[in-house]
Amino acid sequence: MVISRRPNLNVDLFVDGTKLKQRDSFRYLGTIITQDGKSHTEIKARIAQAKTNFQKMKPLLTNNKITITTRKRALQCYIEPILMYGCEAWTITKEIQKKIEAAEMWFFSRMLRVPWTARKTNEEVLKETESTRSLMNRIRRRQAKFVGHIMRREGLENLVTTGRMEGKKSRGRQREKMLDGMTSWMGTKRVTDALSESWDRESWKDMIANAKGQGT
């Protein structure tokens, strides 16, 4: 597979005279990797898997005889980990963030058995479930912890995260990187400012704890 901004870039690779089949995507350690290098396909697949497993646990998660607190704990224990698997490496655009937040509200609405015909606002659903939107914040927190870990390790992951490629930038608006979204969430102006703080474990923990967060 060739990862590039240029679509349908064909490359011929041979091993012992046998041509390898080129793929536009493949699954590695449970994560879908695509030729455009984006996280969109993987995140959408994770949301779909989480919803499927929610339906399997529907008798428990929508049971009004069980307190909403207990059901929310079951949601966080069995459903959300499926959605958040591998989120440390996600690049989350505004479009994808809306899908993640919509999935979170979908879970809460189903737990209350709110029909699609009922014109109930998200705020009303959150109030009834005694919840706030926290899924995006938890994803960003996991990303920040992961970045702090790999920066202090000074291994291959550090090199991949902080390294620069030779050559000129492509024309037009540059793609948003995972570090861009994370530093914005933490309230720092530049990626370099955030990464410089990551070497101090305690300072990094304080930055994560005091992050302004995202969502409403």
UniProtKB/TrEMBL annotation:
Domain of life, per lineage: Eukaryota
Keyword Hydrolase on entry: yes
Molecular-function GO terms, alphabetical: endonuclease activity
Keyword annotations from UniProtKB, A to Z: Endonuclease, Hydrolase, Nuclease
Protein name as catalogued: Endonuclease-reverse transcriptase
